[in-house]
Design brief:
Elements: H1 4-23, H2 33-40, H3 44-49, H4 52-70, H5 77-102, H6 110-126, H7 132-155, H8 161-180, H9 190-197, H10 206-224, H11 226-236, H12 238-243, H13 248-274, H14 285-295, H15 307-326, H16 332-362, H17 367-380
Helix pairs in contact: 1-17, 4-15, 5-10, 5-13, 5-14, 5-15, 6-7, 6-8, 6-13, 7-8, 7-13, 9-13, 10-11, 14-15, 14-16, 15-16
Length: about 375
């Protein structure tokens, strides 16, 4: 007769082999004592990577301290006001870009769309003589239309988002020159100048109020509603989203429309602030928006990020740009700084993904491993 120990060993081998043969490589999520200890022993640096917003706040504090030590004027009311004003314009677009990135797409044409809608609405007010409200509405409609075209080409025609939005970037830049003839559109109606010059709080006008409302609503939608949850699923794995019944194409299309509309709004707010539809509006914004959102923890690979993080990232980018100016450096260094930050942000994004995958593997085991562990515990009793 077999001993009790040998019987348990034989039972263990038979059970494990049977599970392996029936279930193959299917993964069962279970936390073991060893895996739990491994996760708890992760280094503090990697824990910070899992909370990118905290990292951005730390980077902001460091940047402000450095630039303030170089030039005490950096924290003056005038500089702070200009930083906040610039952040409001770009952050409005960043909200739409964050929705796109979380859903697994992006838009490179947002800056050119902002400039095109600004000069177009300005022309409709001046040359065409349309009422202000109608010209502004048509500007928003133009932005939404461009977003719709981008969305249809990506979701229905299967054109990669990079190619489609890059092409739209060049088309919009060309149309800006066609509409404006290369000159600023002015004089604009007095009501536009009043909107741009109005001050509600701390030299901040209607642009800051609209930015606050859009940011709060966007953050609520992405965090607390089914729309936001579905976008995270789509960005994480679009095939799984389709299996569970989510209309992936519809969500992605609406995100493109949202990005185009918010880009148009930001462009026209700048137009009101400048009291002119300048062809330079929106130039380079696409790089600043993407860099800011990625710095704030919105993943280029989709499914990860928050609106608050995207706004904090844009604020960091703007602080760096303004700090370089107040330090007396050439404006050309701004592009170098933004490009460097973007590369570092993508590196951190990849590192965060590797960290999450490591934690996920540490806290998962195959069915055969689970059965083997259970049988081992039974044999120890």
């Amino acid at each position: 007769m077999l001993s009790v120990k040998k019987s348990l060993d034989l039972c263990k081998r038979l059970t494990v082999n049977r599970v392996r043969g029936n279930l193959g490589d299917v993964t069962l999520v279970t936390q073991t004592d060893g895996s739990r200890n491994k996760v708890e022993k992760e280094k503090f640096f990697f824990r910070l990577l899992a909370v990118p917003e905290l990292g951005v706040v730390v980077a902001l504090i460091i940047c402000i301290s450095i630039f303030q030590s170089i030039n005490p004027v950096f924290l003056s009311g005038e500089v702070v006001g200009s930083i906040i004003q610039a952040v409001t314009f770009v952050s409005i677009i960043a909200v739409g870009q964050a929705f796109l990135l979380i859903g697994g797409n992006f838009d490179l044409s947002v800056g050119a769309v902002a400039g095109l809608t600004a000069v177009t609405s300005g022309k409709l007010m001046t040359s065409a003589g349309l009422p202000v409200w109608l010209a502004l509405f048509l500007g928003l409609a133009l932005g939404a239309l461009i977003g719709l075209i981008n969305g249809l080409m990506v979701t229905k025609a299967g054109v990669p988002a990079f190619i489609q939005t890059l092409g739209m970037l060049f088309v919009a830049q060309g149309l800006i020159q066609v509409v404006s003839l290369g000159y600023p559109v002015y004089p604009l109606p007095d009501v536009i100048e009043k909107i741009g010059e109005s001050s509600i709080f701390f030299t901040l006008g209607w642009n800051a109020l609209l930015w606050a409302v859009i940011s709060i609503v966007g953050d609520f939608v992405i965090r607390k509603t089914a729309i936001g949850r579905n976008l995270y699923v789509i960005g994480g794995n679009s095939e799984v989203a389709k299996i569970v019944g989510i209309n992936v194409a519809r969500y992605q299309l609406l995100c493109f429309v949202l990005a185009g509309t918010l880009s148009a709004l930001a462009g026209m707010l700048v137009m009101a602030t400048l009291s002119a539809g300048a062809p330079s509006i929106g130039t380079g914004w696409e790089l600043t928006v993407i860099a800011g959102t990625v710095v704030g923890g919105v993943s280029l690979f989709g499914g990860i990020g928050t609106i608050a993080g995207a706004i904090l990232g844009v604020l960091l980018i703007q602080c760096v740009q303004s700090g370089l100016i107040t330090s007396g450096l050439s404006p050309n260094y701004q592009l170098i700084a933004v490009g460097t930050i973007l590369v570092l942000a993508v590196f951190l994004d990849v590192t965060r993904r590797k960290y999450r995958n490591t934690v996920r593997k540490a806290t998962t085991e195959s069915p055969s491993e689970a059965v083997e562990r259970t049988v081992n515990k039974a044999g120890d009793v």
